[in-house]
Design goal:
Elements (H helix, E strand, L loop, with lengths): L6 H4 L1 H20 L3 H23 L2 H22 L7 H6 L17
Helix pairs in contact: 3-4
Length: 111
């Protein structure tokens, strides 16, 4: 009887997706190190997603308002952190504009 494939061999796509998700999570965490930025994203992301849903459920001003407010919270967090909003980075690169994806860590001694 031939050996059955190991779990690892049976799910190569799942492994690749998990590796991609792990890298994406690490990148996201690096771009949101400031506690204010992180916290305001925890409000802004659900609010923006709710806005998309609201566009299909209630009058459009409510959905649009939630979407805009959610993105405003995230933009505000990135202003405090000092880096660019992720959705704008590809556009800025395409236009040849300077991009700040991840702010360098500063030492506590001011250097």
């Amino acid at each position: 009887m031939p050996d059955s494939p190991s779990r690892r061999e049976r799910f190569p796509i799942a492994r690749k997706l998990l590796r991609f998700a792990g890298r994406a999570r690490q990148n996201w965490l690096q771009r949101h190190r400031n506690s204010f930025n992180f916290a305001i994203h925890m409000m802004g992301i659900p609010l923006a997603l709710a806005g998309v849903v609201l566009l299909f459920v209630v009058d459009w001003p409510w959905g649009t308002g939630a979407l805009v407010l959610g993105y405003f919270f995230q933009w505000l967090g990135h202003q405090v952190e000092g880096n660019d909003v992720g959705e704008l980075i590809p556009l800025k690169r395409l236009l040849g504009m300077p991009v700040v994806a991840i702010v360098p860590v500063r030492n506590t001694d001011g250097s």
